Amino acid sequence: MAAAAAEEGRLKLLGFWSSPFVLRTRYALNLKGIPYTNVEEDLFGAKSELLLAANPAHGGKVPALLLPDGRSVSESLIIVEYLDEAFPGTPPRLLPSDPHRRATARFWAAHVDGALLPAWIPLYGGSTAEERVEAARRVVGVLETFEGVLRRGDCCSSGEEEEGGFGFFGGDSVGLVDVVLGGFIGWLRASEAMCGVKTIEDGSRTPLLAAWAERFAALEGVREILPEVGRLVEYNQMKRALRGLPFLPPHQQQ
Ligand SMILES: N[C@@H](CCC(=O)N[C@@H](CS)C(=O)NCC(=O)O)C(=O)O
Q1: Is 47 helix (H, G, I), strand (E, B) or coil?
Q2: Does the first or last residue of the chain, that is N or C, have fewer Cβ atoms within 10 Å of its Cβ?
Q3: 99-242 topology per CATH
Q4: How much distance in Å is there from the Cα of 219 to the middle of ligand 1?
Q5: Whole-model pTM?
Q6: What's the fold here for domain 10-86?
């Protein structure tokens, strides 16, 4: 009874533990300290009526944020921005107040889904080892772009600071690009186990980004829910098996 009462008036997030899109919204909620109830959807069975009703345009994709008054917000980037606008008094502010920096942060956040995601998909689901390795190389190429964004402080710099001196894309504290790219850290860490090529951890190509990933992953609100590489790799293996794809190239299978 008391638990039910406590649930009332809370946000509810419909999600799935391994989804980079869900994770970015959970990082935003956790880092801002916004109370919410996390609900794991069954993406392999029947999706909940709540999810289907929240996002009918996309056939019920996670994440979906349910508001206490029954309305909902869908699409991870929109949810993150909504949270920042609806809870302006809870730091960190994820979107810069300066219009140009805000536009720049939105540009790079969109680039995660526009460039990193399509590069990463064949790493996850490619049918040959070569395809997966090639995908990992392309992912590193996109990460190099983000290395430059971080080094120059594109989303936070006033132009007077020294390059490379920013802990986060948002500057001294996390911002929009941190949580959006941060959603992929677990999967990027899994790339070595998935295809033998390091991506985010390759400090020789992207040293600032490798250090950023460590820093972001260690934050309270992130470290508790960041999926472990072993669990992600197992999940990938299971998804590939469902599609009839081997996890390892034939010569490496036992
Ligand atoms: N553009 C969407 C992507 C969401 C998405 O693809 N979610 C996947 C999980 S990673 C999902 O719901 N898959 C189940 C389905 O499509 O039925 C966002 O940013 O929220």
Answers
A1: coil
A2: C
A3: Glutathione S-transferase Yfyf (Class Pi); Chain A, domain 2 (1.20.1050)
A4: 25
A5: 0.95
A6: Glutaredoxin (3.40.30)
